[in-house]
Amino acid sequence: TNHLRTLIQHLCRSTHPLGKTLDYIQEDVDSMNKELESWRKECARLRKLEEDANFSTAGGGDGEEGGDVGRMSRQVRSIEGQIEVQVERIAELKAGIIQNDATIQRLVRNVTHPVK
């Protein structure tokens, strides 16, 4: 019986910390669930702020572009149109230069090698 009592005491001393740990685990799980819920609320709040910011910079969603993004978009389109006009002018000038160069070469050839 003495031996059995010693074994039971040893078993109780070994399992007591395990029981306490299991109690703490449940408390930790509850605490983690509360923290998770608070982070989810924070995430939802920040998403809402982001949507509101995007809504206001995109012009308020009235179908027409407004705000900073709309204004910049219109400026970009205007500049792109100006670039296109300048590219066409450059192409026309290059074509004129090529034609003038061909005319000059023909005239120089006629002066240096006259047709008899």
UniProtKB/TrEMBL annotation:
Q: Does the keyword Coiled coil apply?
A: yes
Give the record's keywords alphabetically: Coiled coil
Q: Which domain of life is it from?
A: Eukaryota
BP terms from Gene Ontology: cilium assembly; intraciliary transport; regulation of microtubule cytoskeleton organization
Q: Where is the TRAF3-interacting protein 1 C-terminal domain?
A: 2-111
What GO annotations for molecular function exist for this entry?
A: microtubule binding
The record's GO CC annotations read: axoneme; ciliary basal body; intraciliary transport particle B
Asked whether the keyword Repressor is assigned, the reply is no
- Which InterPro entries does the UniProt record give? TRAF3IP1, TRAF3IP1_C
- Which intervals of the chain form a coiled coil? 22-49
- Supply the PANTHER family for this chain: TRAF3-INTERACTING PROTEIN 1 (PTHR31363:SF0)
> Which protein is depicted?
TRAF3-interacting protein 1
List the gene name.
Answer: TRAF3IP1_2
